[in-house]
Every structure is written in C-alpha cells, then in structure tokens.
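Feature request, filed as a ticket because there's no other form

It would be nice if the structure record came with a short human-readable summary line next to the tokens. Right now we just get the raw output. Example of a typical job, pasted below so the devs can see what we mean:
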Amino acid sequence: MNEIYRFESVKKYYLASRRGLLEMALRKKPVYVHALEDFSFSLETGKVTAMVGESGSGKTTIGKIMATIENPTSGSVYFKGTKVSSKDYPRIRKDLSMVFQNPATSLNPRMRISELMSEPLGNFDKDKVEESLQSVGLSFDEVRNKQPKELSGGQIQRIAIARALVKHPDLIILDEPTSALDESMQAQILNILIDIQEQFHLTYIFITHNISVAKYLADTISVLYAGKLVENGPAQKILSAPQHPYTQLLIKSVPTVSSREISAPTGDVPSLINPPTGCRFHTRCPFVMEKCRQEEPPLVVRDEVEVACWLDA
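Raw output as currently delivered:
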C-alpha cells in the first residue's frame, strides 16, 4: 500500500484550563483533555478516507495534526515515508491544503477573490487561479473582484475548495465542508469534490459526523469515538456489515425511504478529561459486558476491517 500519511500511537492532550502563577505555586496538577489516544492509522495515496464520529471524537484534531496546525503530544507521524518533525512543516505544507467547515470565517472578508486565490501561491498566477475556479464551476471574470460577502454560501465554499486546489497539492483535508449548506447545495459540492479528486488524482481526508455523506464518496471509513479509533476499513464492508456497536448505531441513525425507524446512540459522550476505563463506548453500548468495563479492546482485523470490540472476540 502506498501511504501518504501514517500515525503510530499518536496522543494529543490539551490543557483543560490555564495554569497561572497561583496554580503553579500551589503545585496543582494540570488537567488535560484527552482529545486523541493511541491513534494508529495509515492514509492511502489517491483514496478518499472519511473520518466519522460525533463532536468530540477527535476527527478535527487528526486533521489539524495532518495540516501541521497542531503538534502531537506523543507518538510518531510519517509523511510520504519520512518521520515528521517541526522542521519538516514548511515542506509538508506545500503538498497539502485544508478546507474548513465555515469558509465565511476562514476567508479574509476584506480581500477580493483574486487575492484570496493567489495567497497560497505567494504571487498572482492567472492561469492557475482561473484553472482552479473553473474546476469548481466558477468564472474568473465574474468573481475576481468580488469579496466573500458578495457571494452565496455555496459560492464561498467553492472558492474555499478552489483556493485549496490552486497550488496543486497531493492531499486535501476537508473538515465538514458541506455541513453548513442545504441538501441540494451539499450534493453539488460533493459532486465537485468527486470530479476534482478523479481529475487531479488527489488524496482526501473527509471529516464528517454524517455517515451518509461518507457513504457517498469514501473508499475507506474510519470511525472514531471519544478520541479512539473503533473501526476502520473499506467503506463498502463497513456500511454493509458494521462490526462495532457504535458504527451500527451511527448507520441506524440515518433515516431511509424503506424504514422510518431510527436508532441513535443514547446517553452522553464520556468525559475526555476523565475517560472511562475499558472500552470508552461501554457507558452507551447496548451489548456491554463486564469485560468491556474493565479492559480496553485492541484493534483486530476481521474480514479486512479493523475493529476494537470484545464482541465475537
């Protein structure tokens, strides 16, 4: 397998609150949010991988580490086979781009579209800018002198995608790029993403809480829960025969034409400051056993899918 990114036992902790002089003088122990815990994962070149899970599952943290916005607390990260350190960040940033959830806040509202499109290049290149805008169905002459506030939500998201594409990256990280759009516009954006992925042979990480969106465009699905990878493998296998109870409930929570019955996970996501022992899903799992409360299940391969669950172990 040709990997573009690989994570080995990566952890990411955030301070839960600021530590001032008083806290340090009193020797209070710092309190951490365990955003990502022992995360091991490989991203295959030229494929679309969907990172799926509820808010707080660690999806965006993974995207930020890949984009070199955040540093891992511990563990190893490899990009194109080379172990990553901070001195490698400028080189890696040339080969990847990120599209954020809300382009209205990620794009400078005072800049014109021609300036926004040129910013990743460091200079104005009309041919590259025009090519990227055409790839997302926009006319350079129509939008070049406009500001984001003069465009619709769908147009702004297309600008964000075109801006990510303009420097011809190998990898694009898409953080909930359709969640702020209505369903008809979501479909248009997803079709655009599929077209440019095939046209430019791109690798995508598609971060989403919506497993039906993952179904539409992903080759591989990685399911995260409370900072842990619980299921990972070919999208078709996971969607047709999910093995982890959390994945099963995510799929059942999506309404279909044939059934009005939906089954979403009940209860609250566990605290990431004080995660539960054993399997982190055991507080909400309908199949919980005593072993689940005591021992954390390892990731094992079953029918080409990695799954962390004591059921059928």
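Something like this underneath would help us a lot:
The radius of gyration is 21 Å.
Residues 3-95+169-307 form a domain with the Rossmann fold fold (CATH 3.40.50.300).
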